[in-house]
Every structure is written in C-alpha cells, then in structure tokens.
Amino acid sequence: MASGGAEATAPLLAANNGEPRHRRNTFAFACATLASMTTILMGYNLALMSGAQLFIREDMGLTDEQIEVLSGSMNVFMLASILAAGWTADALGRRGTLVLANAFLMAGALAMSLGSTYAALMSARFVTSVGVGLAVVVAPVYTVEISPASSRGVLSSLPEIFINAGILLSYVSNYALAGVGWRAMFAAGVAPPVFLAAGVLAVMPESPRWLAMSGRLDDARSVLLRVSDTVAEAELRLDEIITHAAGAAARHDGGGVWRQLFVRPSPTVRRIMTKVMSLHFFQQASGIDVIVLYSPLVFKQAGISSNTFVLAATVAVGVVKTSFILAATLLSDRLGRRPLLLASTGAVAFTLASLAVALCVASPAASVASAMAYVAAFSVGLGPLAPAYGAEIMPLRLRAQGASVGTAVNRVTCGVLSMTFISLAGGISMAGCFFLYAGAAVAACVFVYFSELLHIGGIVGFVATVVQSK
C-alpha cells in the first residue's frame, strides 16, 4: 500500500540488514505448522476406531452393523460443523475457530473414553466430529492465507501431512495399548487439544486476509510483514487483498456468499466449484477411508488371525502412508499438480485391483503389500492435492465457504463408503468392494486428464483467469 509505506517500512528495512532472508519464512512455517497440527487429532480420532473396534465389539457385544455405523458416523456427523465452518471462521476469525475446534476435540475424546453404552459412544463421536469438521476446513484456509508465495505449495500440504501423522499415531496407539484397553486409546487424546489451543492463542497471529476483510488493515499489514519474504511482497499481498475484497463488495452489493456459490454463480465460480467438488468426491470414492478404518478386518479376511499381527500390519500401512505424503510435499511444486494426480490416480486404480486379487486368493503377504502400495499411490497425489486445490483456487470472498462445501462432499462420500463397507462386503465380497473402488479411481484418472483446471499452468494460470474474468 502507498499510504504510510515509507514510514512503516524504514525501521524494518534497517533491522533486516545482514539478516538471512529465510528467517521471514520461518515464522510463516511455524504458524502454518501450529494451525495444521490440529488436524493430527482428526486423523487420530478417525482412525483409532480401526483397532479399537476389535476390542469394543468384544467388550460391549456390538453387531457388525453397529460397528460400521460407529466407525463411519463421524464423517456424517461432521457435516454440520463443516458447513458452518466458513461462517464461523469469518465471524470468530481463523484463530478463534481453531481454538473452538480443539475444545470440542478434548471433550469428545474424554466422553469417548468414559462411554458405557452404544448411545453414549455415538454421542461422543458427534462431539468429536464438531471439532474435526471445524479443523479440517479452517486449517488449510489459514495455512494458504498465511503462507508466502515461495513456500505455499509445501505449507498447503501440512494439514494433510498431519492428518496422516494422526492416523499413524492411532495405529501405534492401537498396537501399544491393546493390552490396556480401548478406553485408554481414546483417553490418550484428551490432553493434546489443550496444549494446541494454548499454542494457537500464544503464538499464532490472525489471518491477514481476515484482518483486512474486517477493516483492521494495520494489523493485517503487520502480520504480512512477518510472514512474507520481503517488505515488497507484504505490500503487494495487502494491496491484492484490499483490491479483491473491494471488488467483490462492489460486484455483489453485499449479497450472501452462499448465493454467489450456488444460486447465482458466475460461470467461473461454477467451473471452480465443479472441479473442487469432483476432486473431493473422487478422493474418497477410491476407498481410502475403508483402508484407514477397516484394514484390520481386511487383513483378517486375507488370512491373518492374530490381533497382534493384524495391528502390526496396520502400523506398517500407516508408516508408508505418512512417508509418501511427505514425498508429495517435495514433488507438488517441482513436478506440477496434474502429472502427480495422473500418476497417483492411475496407480491407485492398479493397486486397488491388485488388493482385490490378493483377497480372492487369500494371500496375507500380497494383501498387506497391495494395501501399502495403495496408500503410497494415494498419498503422493490424490490425498494431499484435493484439499489443497479447494483452498487455493477459490476467490477470496468465497474461500472459507467454498472450502467447506468441498470438504462436505468429501465427508459425505467417505461416510457412505465407511458406513456400508461391512454390509457391502457381505453382499459382493471384500474383493468385489475393492474392484468397485478401483473403477472409481479409473474415473478419477479420466477426470484429471480432461479437466482444463489441471492442465499446464495449474493453479497459478487458473487463478489468473479467475482474476481477469472478474
């Protein structure tokens, strides 16, 4: 911004003499990391049921139908908070919403560890889902809004990395606490949200975009100076935020965001929303949460009888999944989104088909190997890039609500698959289920190939088109 620029920047420029440039990005990295760490608890609470269900079933005498509803219900329960997350993030700020999410996560973990009836466990899952829904929408939005252009690709992958870290932690917890009981597995998730909420309040600044849109331009500029590579970049980012916000207000005359998304969307917004929702659908239709939630049952079906060996194989799957999500952060900016997505969806289809074949011949080793190859293929592309697109390509005014819509599609698809897997496997066999999911992955590969959103130029080119069309 021009106003006050010379006076405000002079002290900072003087202080920066001789200071390594990368230190500016260190603060942005710390903020993005802290925000994204809340999603660890999403992965932990979601996947903990994979091993805990083996013991809950025996302890409480639950049926297969009750187990699959208890395991998958969180994906449906969180729809309310996902759809409300955009409004909440705009009303309370990104930081306040993350604190609220951690409060629900703490309460849900405590209630789950103390639940003595099926109804109590379902209620606890609902409480947990509220926190998960808020975190899974707001963490990626905050991360994109706080990140400098030079590291946005890497930092935007952090929420997905931490979700996978949470999944791995849940598998390790299942294995380590199997002799103690399932209540201890859930009780282990009570304390972390308290520390994360305290860290958010103590360290993280509010999103500069939210500050600017709330009229707090001086505060927004102060944050941007800390999270940008240079003073010039900070000024440019603030000017862009103000220009886009003013243009949106002038174009829409104060109209509601939901009306702009669905009732009277512009052709560009319609195209963006179609691509965002399609990617989220295909991400889950390929069956990733079936593996996350039911890999112990899959491995038992393949011929592994010992609970200890089943849980150990699940930990191995979790290690591979987390390792390859880290590889994706290094490759997404170097190779581009479209090549990674094409390779990922094609490999997902192949490995799902190989898992189905391994189940047909009841080969434990081949089943575990195929499951590991599947999560590797998923994590290197389709897993992290679908939510990153949702946060990156939405216009500023529509970003929080647009991201929540994409996440809602993601969770509905996941809920349908996770709450029907046991019943569907009883009808068409587990192998049949994975052949079905392989077909969805083939459709995803075709979609990526023909989608103009994902061609050469990727996010940057498409966002430039969006800005010009406005």
TrEMBL record:
Localization in the cell: Membrane
Main location: membrane
Bilayer topology term: Multi-pass membrane protein
Record's keyword terms, sorted: Membrane, Sugar transport, Symport, Transmembrane, Transmembrane helix, Transport
Stretches that traverse the bilayer: 27-47, 67-87, 99-120, 126-146, 184-204, 309-328, 340-365, 371-391, 412-440, 446-467
GO molecular function, one term: carbohydrate transmembrane transporter activity
Record GO cellular component, one term: membrane
Superkingdom in the source lineage: Eukaryota
Every Major facilitator superfamily (MFS) profile domain range: 31-456
Family as reported in the entry's similarity comment: Belongs to the major facilitator superfamily. Sugar transporter (TC 2.A.1.1) family.
PANTHER family recorded: MAJOR FACILITATOR SUPERFAMILY (MFS) PROFILE DOMAIN-CONTAINING PROTEIN (PTHR23500:SF463), SOLUTE CARRIER FAMILY 2, FACILITATED GLUCOSE TRANSPORTER (PTHR23500)
Protein known as: Major facilitator superfamily (MFS) profile domain-containing protein
Source species of the chain: Leersia perrieri
Lineage: Eukaryota, Viridiplantae, Streptophyta, Embryophyta, Tracheophyta
